Amino acid sequence: MSSHGNSNSANDPRQPSAAKPFVAQMVSPQDLPVDYSGFIAVIFGVAGVMFRYKLSSWLAIIFCAQSLANMRNIETDLKQISMAMMFAIMGLATNYFGPARPGTK
After folding, report:
1. How many percent of the chain have pLDDT more than 90?
2. Widest CA span of the chain, in angstroms?
3. Residues 6+ apart with CB under 8 A from 66
4. What are the Cα distances from residue 13, in Å, to 4, 9, 44?
5. C-alpha to C-alpha distance for 92 and 12, rounded to whole angstroms
6. Please, how many CA atoms are within 13 Å of residue 37, restricted to the half-sphere of its CB?
7. What is the 3-state secondary structure of the chain?
8. 97 phi and psi angles, rounded to 5 deg
9. By the 8 A CB rule, do 50 and 101 touch?
10. Who contacts 91 (Cβ-Cβ below 8 Å, separation ≥6)?
11. Distance separating alpha carbons of residues 95 and 105, to the nearest angstrom
12. For residues 22 and 39, what is the distance between their CA atoms, to the nearest angstrom?
């Protein structure tokens, strides 16, 4: 016998009249969790510019894209993402178009 039959509906303890739709609580911008991918993007971007690591600049761009996709607060997150993207682009530009690093061929 199937447990989904009409005979079990009389014994169903759920009350559809008491069901309420879920409403998410409003959270202030100061209480939002830290955007770790944006912070990591800034760190990799700065490392890419200062130490001239290509991999670090590429990782900064990847983390910028992730942070942009998961952005919660438009004002503060957009400033952080734009700063990280500028560091990543400057790092890539200096790595690919600038003079070679000393000690590398």
Report:
1. 47
2. 81
3. 37, 41
4. 14, 9, 55
5. 63
6. 16
7. CCCCCHHHHHHCCCCHHHCCCCCCCCCCHHHCCCCHHHHHHHHHHHHHHHCCCHHHHHHHHHHHHHHHHCCCCHHHHHHHHHHHHHHHHHHHHHHHHCCCCCCCC
8. -110, -10
9. no
10. 45, 48, 49, 52, 53, 54, 56, 57, 60
11. 13
12. 32
**Chain segment 35-76, per-residue pLDDT in tens:** 899 999 999 999 999 998 999 999 999 999 999 998 887 877
Q: Which amino acid is at 22?
A: F
